[in-house]
Amino acid sequence: MTIKGEITEQEPFVVVLPDKVEGNDTLNFILKEDAERPVTHTTIDIFSEREANVYICNAPKSGYTSVKEDMILGTYQSRYKLYVNYVMDCNSEGVKEIEVKFYKEEE
User: Fold this and answer.
1) Closest-CA residue to 76 (of 36, 24, 30)
2) Is the pTM higher than 0.85?
């Protein structure tokens, strides 16, 4: 499944992944500055079984960024491993656009 949208420093990109077996998953993609680690990086803060923040830290102001490998989130529909990946870039008007891809794998 692929979901696209806009993301800003003031407004995270929120994705709700429907799951009728375990309950919906909510992911908040958030742009964040991290002075302790000045390179671009991504961290996941899972704060409940079905909710997590994905922090895109020190993203280029007007450029492309992505993760090198799929990130595992947990389970989906009780029988799959759930992975996420994203690509973020700026359009011609300078607006950051994000494309989030989910993958599932039989456990």
Assistant:
1) 24
2) yes
